[in-house]
Amino acid sequence: MSATVSFQGIGASPGVAVGHAYVLDAKRVRTPKIKLNKPETEAEVLRFKTAIDLSDRQLEELKKKLGDDGEEHGLILEAHRMMLHDPMFIVEVSRLIKEDTINAEWAVRRVCKRLRHQFDNLEDEYFRERKSDIEFVADRLVRNLMGEVVDQELEVPPHAIVCAHDISPADAAMLVRSGSIGAFVTDLGGQTSHTAIVARAREVPAVVGLGKACESIRSGDMVAVDGRRGLVLVNPTEEQLSLFRETMRRQLQSEQAALQTAELPAVTLDGVRVRLNGNMEFPEEIPSLLAHGAEGIGLYRTEFLFLNRSHPPTEEEHFESYKQVLQAMGSRPVTIRTLDLGGDKVPGKKHDKEINPAMGLRAIRYCLSHRELFRVQLRALLRASAFGNIRVMFPLVSSISELREARSELEACRSELSRQGVPVGKRFPIGIMVETPSAAWIADRLALEADFFSIGTNDLIQYSLAIDRQNRDVAYLYRPLHLAILRSLENIIRAGRNANIPVAMCGEMAGDAALTIVLLALGLEEFSMTAGQIPMVKNVIRQMTKEDAVTILEQAMKFSSAEEIERFIKAEVDRRFNAGDLV
Length: 583
What we know:
Elements: E1 5-8, E2 10-13, E3 16-23, H1 41-66, H2 71-84, H3 87-99, H4 104-120, H5 125-128, H6 131-145, E4 160-164, H7 169-178, E5 181-186, H8 194-202, E6 206-208, E7 222-226, E8 231-234, H9 238-260, E9 266-267, E10 273-280, H10 286-291, E11 297-301, H11 315-329, E12 333-337, H12 363-369, H13 371-384, E13 389-394, H14 400-420, E14 430-434, H15 437-441, H16 443-446, E15 452-455, H17 457-464, H18 483-498, E16 503-505, H19 516-522, E17 526-529, H20 534-542, H21 546-556, H22 562-576
Parallel strand pairs: 3-4, 4-5, 5-6, 10-11, 10-17, 11-12, 12-13, 13-14, 14-15, 15-16
Antiparallel strand pairs: 1-8, 2-6, 3-7, 7-8, 9-10
Helix pairs in contact: 1-2, 1-3, 1-6, 2-7, 3-4, 4-6, 11-13, 13-14, 19-21
């Protein structure tokens, strides 16, 4: 047996899997570079446009072939079709063919490279990951131009660990259709790559961002994957395999028990009722959220509507997306967050490069600076409100004036629709994301004008502790149990309670079962998280009393350093629960 090799990547979808490797050989096609004679360029442009039409038909046929099995991929494949027909892309490739007298394959690669470079400079990981879509579309075009086979059927053995440099949305769709996948392992990608999104939607373990690991994995190798820790073991020892299989057995047992109790309420032993909602960005995630016991949607990210396009979505596109989710959720509440993007990430507009986009013109600031784009989304939300139990919240609010301006725009849109005779629903709650230190410290005033709070801990921690959580040099300073963070949360929740408005949390802290005791003690009564985290958090809540949680937190907050608080809380969690079920 070969020596065990360990690789550390990014845990993109939780879960543990053991199986034989199926290496997806998707080597990039070598692009021919040919200089043309001037008279040949017109025919070359026609050949390029014919390849576009062929690629478009392939994507449409793939969607039809997948049928109901392809729901997770429908939006992604449709985005690729839109990219194919992007006028800017077509014009630029055609221009290169004519002016530089080069073949279509070469021109496509040059334009693709330029676009990828623009995406590399984006601050937001979610949008930075979309550069892979450009590559996938270019690969499809080049392969069609060269007459190569595209979208071949993949026959993957059951429970295989699929290993690849990267997996295109089309390949991911075919893989899911082919049968049960043990896990996904890729060299490229992050938390927001297509592989990660598909894996989470299908509850398949996934580790991405492994560098060059898949180059050393061969088909048939035994591979063990831990999707939460981002760990991949190739040819593990019998002892390691035994540990992984035991973890798999325990997780399967825990999952089955959790699904059986999905309909049970999250109530503490002393009767405190907690609402557990789900975070989502694609409608295809809804079945999994409901199966795991989500009582509503606590955070519906709308940024996906802006992906891979040269122009912002229309009001009708916004409306149809929101309507679909609201109808799928029935009477359950759906909290929709308005556009949370920086100015350098909104399609169809050119912007100056910001030195620090995370603290620049983004989220509610960008929307209030670009009222027409904001009003398109608000009109769609008002129209969609007739089809379900909607709540709307504004991100990155840092002052009372921003909340007032945003509410004013919403009411102006309501009046406009009324004059036009367009039906809208009844008035619905308007809330804010509390994710800036300024909002945390004026929470008492904001609570008088907002209908609810939702705490975004990811940014609140980052801004409060003055650290970039994407920067590995300072990532160790990102401490949710820092005393400053606990005091901020205490202030926000107290302000909501005094004003008699609901306070929820939709950041990563909400889904960390090891921190549930802390949040319960602080008085949080509405958590929102990914589907797989709901059963674990519910398990903690149903085995605790609120009184015990308060006592634990009071003792923890007597310590001064984050490390001391973390050690104390971890010891208490280990004493009360099987810690292995909480990680």
